[in-house]
Amino acid sequence: MACLWGLDRVFPPNLSRLDDLSTVVEGENGRPLRVFGTADGLLRLETRIAEIDPKYIRFLKSYEDRRFDSHFGVDPLALIRAVGQWVRAGHVVSGGSTLTMQVARLLEPRDRTILSKIVEMLRAIQLEAHYSKTEILDMYVTLAPFGGRVEGIRSATHVYFRKEPDHLTIAEAALLTVLPQSPGRLRPDRFPETARAARDKVLDRLYLTNAISRADYIEALAEPLPVAQYPLPMLAPHLAERLVAANRDRTRIVTTIDPALQADLQKLVEFRGADQASERSVAIMVVENSTSKVRAHLGARDYLDRVSHGFVDMTRAIRSPGSTLKPFIYALSFDDHQTHPQTMIWDREIADGSYHPTNFDHGEYGQVSIADALRFSLNIPAVKVLERYGPIRFAQSLRRNGLEMRLPGEAQSPNLAMALGGVGVRLEDLIGFYRALAADRKNCPLQYLRDRAPVPCLSDSDMFSVRTQNWITGILQNTPRPAGYRWQSSDNTNATPIAFKTGTSYGYRDAWAFGYAGDYTVGVWVGKASGQPIPGQTGLGAAAPILFSVFEKLPRPPLSPARKAAFNLWKAPPPDLLKDFSRQQKGTTKQAANGLDIISPAEDAVFLLGDIQQRGVPLRARNGLRPLIWIINGVPLVSDPWKRTVNWMPDAPGFYDITVLDRQGAAHHRRITIRTALPSDH
């Protein structure tokens, strides 16, 4: 006993094979999306007996080791029986190995010799001393061989039956019970008759020992065997690859992906791509609005296709967004009280300036409403509204809310070309903005991992008001549909209409469609990963049909009367000051020509430090051309340059010179005093 105790301390159980596991990326329901092989190329998935159909564990013990729950790792009765059979038959009939001894051999494979059998018995006793029966069975169902590179019961059920091991038929459980005895000789895909005989032998014993009924026995005998080893799932391969690279210490990564939806979308793209150019790729994302969880992620049409560069994840590629930023241009303009959905604007060529945009069809439509300019994606009105709002200000607003944009190489600062796609964005980023438009008006990080705590939103404040959100949604719900799709405005259907926007980049390189309805936002990109143009490809013709096909697979609850009424408010007449964009522009220009002025605080104002330490000092300016810069005693104040009111938090008493500068260099000054609180004020 002392010798055994010493050997146990010097030679502890070698569990290194249990550390060399395949990494599996799973969907939210635990179904595999993609499995990565071990360093040796094996498919060895970590498995627990709690995840396996109980009948398999019952059959395994009954056939392989009936006294497993009571012996100490070695079964003397089984050994005596095996030796007796050997002596009578002149060759090995049964090995007498317990499941624990088999685990010892799986952990440290050895040649089949008497010495190896003795080592296995000692290791089995050692395993029983250190681990529970459940833990030993967990080792077995993870390491047991099932033919080829398949190890472990979970790998086997996916390869042979295309399912998880939690629900097995009697015939399936019987086959898996016997297959590890000789996985190369009993593989049903190669030696079906031998495999059937071995399976039926297990069924015979189960029936004779009353482990299964006669009806179950007859039914199991008639069940066909699997005829092939099926490939493991290859769902969301780009996302799986990225998550494995970011979580190298984990062998099981559970995502937010819905495997059934993901599989449907991959089949959809495969079906639609059959009659398309071979170089064309497709990227799709589906996001749950209430949680920001990504429910489907397709980085390319075919991950394994070299012609279309399928290995490139197009959800993360920097591409021109075309017209997909227009809803946000109008949303910020609405919130700034510069325009209204029914403000009339001239759709005709801009006569002055160096930028001369045209509409997609090179036509002009005269005086149109802002709503119609957005519905029909007219370029000229969008550029005019962006010019009024300010391209730099627009870019800063988007970046402040978490949208990273890449300017073309020759552009030093954001310009009017942004309205028509003159920046670079990623599908993964832009879909977050559309989710905000559909839900809480905040851009929140997308969630890819099921069990990760939600991450704070990228901005504390709302991107725009509820009123503006309803206006934009109502307008986009009434956007013309792609050819072949029924018009679905909020007036003629019970289901929530799809609010969507398409975009086509310059030179027909990128086709986009973003849409939202119910609790889902969908983003679609179509094009060539190489960036080459596809003549005639448009967002409405190439991406929007895919978008609508995706929504056919998603629930869209009925739209309540209150929500329907809110979404129709964009049709209301505008205030008098916002009826005409051109007349409003003249009035604004005249007002901007007035002198820059600080209206608060007053000149020579005196403040008590104790009074303003919590609320600060509001600094207000009027007139002047934004952006505005506030300077306190010669030091610029960190603030939003597009707001005329900022809050300053002084931290010490003294005399302060306050200056505000506008875009043209005009300046205005104030001088104030901040004193400490008097004793009587304490």
Automatic annotation (TrEMBL):
Q: Does the keyword Acetylation apply?
A: no
Which residues does UniProt assign to the signal peptide?
none
Glycosyl transferase family domain ranges (all copies):
46-206
Name assigned to this protein: peptidoglycan glycosyltransferase
Q: Name one Pfam family in it.
A: Transpeptidase
On whether Nucleotide-binding is a keyword of this UniProt record, the answer is no
Q: What is its EC number?
A: 2.4.99.28
Q: Penicillin-binding protein transpeptidase domain spans which residues? A: 283-546
* Domain spans labelled Penicillin-binding C-terminal: 588-671
Q: Name the enzyme's class.
A: transferase
What protein family does this chain belong to?
Answer: In the N-terminal section; belongs to the glycosyltransferase 51 family. In the C-terminal section; belongs to the transpeptidase family.
Question: Which reaction is catalysed here?
Answer: [GlcNAc-(1->4)-Mur2Ac(oyl-L-Ala-gamma-D-Glu-L-Lys-D-Ala-D-Ala)](n)-di-trans,octa-cis-undecaprenyl diphosphate + beta-D-GlcNAc-(1->4)-Mur2Ac(oyl-L-Ala-gamma-D-Glu-L-Lys-D-Ala-D-Ala)-di-trans,octa-cis-undecaprenyl diphosphate = [GlcNAc-(1->4)-Mur2Ac(oyl-L-Ala-gamma-D-Glu-L-Lys-D-Ala-D-Ala)](n+1)-di-trans,octa-cis-undecaprenyl diphosphate + di-trans,octa-cis-undecaprenyl diphosphate + H(+)
What SUPFAM superfamilies does the database record attribute to this sequence? beta-lactamase/transpeptidase-like, Lysozyme-like
Domain of life assignment? Bacteria
**Keyword vocabulary terms for this entry:** Carboxypeptidase, Glycosyltransferase, Hydrolase, Multifunctional enzyme, Protease, Transferase
Q: Which organism is it from?
A: Thalassospira permensis NBRC 106175
Which InterPro entries does the protein's record reference? Beta-lactam/transpept-like, Glyco_trans_51, Glycosyltr_51/Transpeptidase, Lysozyme-like_dom_sf, PBP_1c, PBP_C, PBP_transglycosylase, PCN-bd_Tpept
So, what pathway does this thing act in?
Cell wall biogenesis; peptidoglycan biosynthesis
